[in-house]
Design brief:
Low-confidence stretches: none
Number of domains: 1
Shape: globular
Radius of gyration: 16 Å
CATH superfamily: Uracil-DNA glycosylase-like domain
Strand order of the largest sheet: 1-3-2-4-6-5
CATH architecture: 3-Layer(aba) Sandwich
Number of strands: 6
Strand content: 5-15%
Order of helices and strands: HHEEHHEHEHEEHH
Length: 225
């Protein structure tokens, strides 16, 4: 997980009134299938190995996924895809992620998001992205050993580049452009874009398992093992 002080600050965040109202309403109303759950209903810090060489950035928690379970990419279909793949490539000790106390541990990997609260229709507003950016900036500064960044979707890709700019970290000209499995060599890391493993992408064939595996195979190769 993120360092304790940063995690506590993220969990207590109330910067975005629309997201606060939505996440808390969902946690109260629940979904029928999860009526016996006590929803998390708060923002989510990053999760993983503080000495990670791989950083994975998603969009935001799902309303009945991370917003329910209390851990990023946990309890939804996108998380199923992600953690199964991390497991196959040796970054996780198990292929499933169902709740924050299920024993999942990441090795040499850290998972985070551009926005820390579940947004309505999975669409954060520009100001909400800007409000969350300082948390990503701090994670970038704290995770000093990261050598490969995988951005799941264009919004996560752009959020990472915006955070680097704010930190005055070099970017090559021309500005890197999002593309699935495209590798961009920056001054200190390799940035790889990937289609997000959302159901909209996986059920329509926009993203197949082979395509997703290709991204993490390239990340493994860049890490030298």
């Amino acid at each position: 997980m993120a360092p304790r002080a940063l995690s506590a600050e993220i969990i207590a965040c109330r910067r975005c009134p629309r997201l606060v109202e939505y996440r808390e309403r969902v946690a109260k109303e629940k979904r029928r299938a999860y009526r016996d759950w006590e929803y998390w209903g708060r923002p989510l810090p990053g999760f993983g190995d503080p000495a990670a060489q791989l950083m994975v950035i998603g969009l935001a928690p799902a309303a009945h996924g991370g917003n329910r379970t209390g851990r990023i990419f946990t309890g939804d279909r996108s998380g199923d895809w992600l953690f199964q793949t991390l497991y196959r490539f040796g970054f996780a000790n198990q292929p499933t992620s169902t709740h924050r106390d299920d024993g999942l541990q990441l090795s040499d990997a850290y998972v985070t998001a551009a926005v820390r609260c579940a947004p309505p229709d999975n669409k954060p507003a520009t100001q909400e992205l800007e409000n969350c950016q300082p948390y990503l900036e701090r994670e970038i500064r704290l995770l000093r050993k990261v050598r490969v960044v995988v951005a799941l979707g264009r919004i996560a890709f752009d959020a990472y580049l915006s955070a680097r700019r704010a930190l005055a970290m070099p970017l090559p000209p021309p500005r890197p452009q999002f593309g699935h499995a495209a590798i961009h060599e920056l001054s200190d890391v390799f940035l790889i874009g990937s289609y997000h493993p959302s159901q909209r992408n996986t059920q329509t064939g926009m993203l197949t398992q082979a395509m997703f595996d290709r991204v993490f195979a390239r990340a493994r190769r860049l890490l030298g093992r």
